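Table S5 (text form). Sequence records supplied for joint modeling of the two-component complex.
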Amino acid sequence: MSETVAFMMGEFRAEFPVDRLYADNHMWALPTEGVVRFGFTAYAVRLLQDVYFLDWAFDAPRDVTRRQEIGSIESKKAESALFSPIAGTLLRFNERLMKDPSAINVDKYDQGWLLEIAGSTDELMSPEQYVTHLDKAWEKTQRTIKGQMNE
Amino acid sequence: MAKRTSVVISQSPSQNPARRALEEDIVTALLMEPGIDVTIIPSLYDLTADSTGMLALQGVNGSMVMVTWLFPRAAHWILDRNQIRGHFGTTLMAAAEDTDDEDDDDEEESAEAEAKPRVIDERPLPDRSIYCLDMRATNRAADFIAEIKRIHLENNVQIVSIAGLNGQSKPVPSVAPPVPETSNGQGSNGAELPQANGSAQVQRIEDTGARRWYPVIDYSRCTNCMECIDFCLFGVYGTDRLDTILVEQPDNCRKGCPACSRVCPENAIIFPQHKTPAIAGSPEIGASLKIDLSELFGAPDQGKSAVEVAALERDEQLQLAGRNAVGMSVGIRPRESNGATSNGQVHESSAAKTSAVKDELDALMDQVDHLDL
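The corresponding structure-token record, covering 524 residues in total, follows.
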């Protein structure tokens, strides 16, 4: 991982490699020969913190629509449903994460990849566009977290 | 001689270190308790009928305390389906978890529940209780130990009084520590720590199987109405010789699909791993202590009735299986005007009522998802 762009989440500097694309649900996308590999961005991992458990809703391969629910994740601080970043055929999940999801934390941009989809990258963003997207979404992110913590 | 109590710890499939720690803390503390046998199994829900773990549980004769990461209802009825039957033991821990709101709901439900015959009414249960404790209730092992000791005492007191009433005619069942078959060579059993006489025997059964997904029927709610067997088009459900509904082919079930539980008029169908507490087996609101990031990670808006959602979920699974979608045209019955559970025919006028009842918990979850942003 060489060059990056960054976004400041409060004090935390989230870095994004410029060698790939980004989805608005905070996944990076690395296209190779028609297959796009996805993983969590530093932004997502910062929100999640230590990942304890990852569960997929079905067995790959399978066709998915964009934003289709595909699984769930549990971490030290949070839990979330997971959604497909693009439409296409979900070819496989990273099996290595099933027993031990810690690679999501220690090597999010490489060994911690989540899944591979054969599909179009047209709707994905450049690193710069993703940072702009984060700028706009940061307020909402803070409110989501703080709103729930006050309950 | 005092009756021994079997305590079974069902491990979490998650690697969450806090969960592992609580499991081990409970086991360690139980080692000091006289009259207790401990069995540690992989996640109860994932055990197949012929697994080492399930066979070990079937070998337990007396009262059992099942300590899991599942809602007690889910654990109880998973055991029941595997011929591990008993009365639903009342735990004081579960009661402590109820809030006022939930109590109100429970009262309404039970008042209605008494009006209809339930499958459980026809079934004689063995003279023992199965107590299911949810490890999500508290993170203090000591609370579980206290409750287990209370249950152990309660059992022994009960036995004495029964024996007294029957003039000692009933032999006190002795609990032989189950010896599992370790055909796969991965099982292990035996004491792990030096023990004093009469203190716990510990048996560990290792994880061997894959994660599973299938429905569990709560027969204390089920009225044998057959809506689930009509709705499910994957042959999961069947009937026994007495024409009672049962989950006949659990592994025909489609992973992630909870559609039949949404159409069940009595909310009797549990998917223990579903994220919605009402579907996972809780009558209570399983308020999570964790932040739900789903909306940030791309959750779309919802706004459909339970049956509409169920029909969509079923269509999705049908298409994945190479079959045709059927929408709302198959296996969905118009319901009587029983507003409490009617979610079959959704009219404009009843839509609010419908979703207010069935989706009460879903709605609360949604509120969390859609905090005023």
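Note: Chain A touches chain B through 41 residues (CB under 8 Å).
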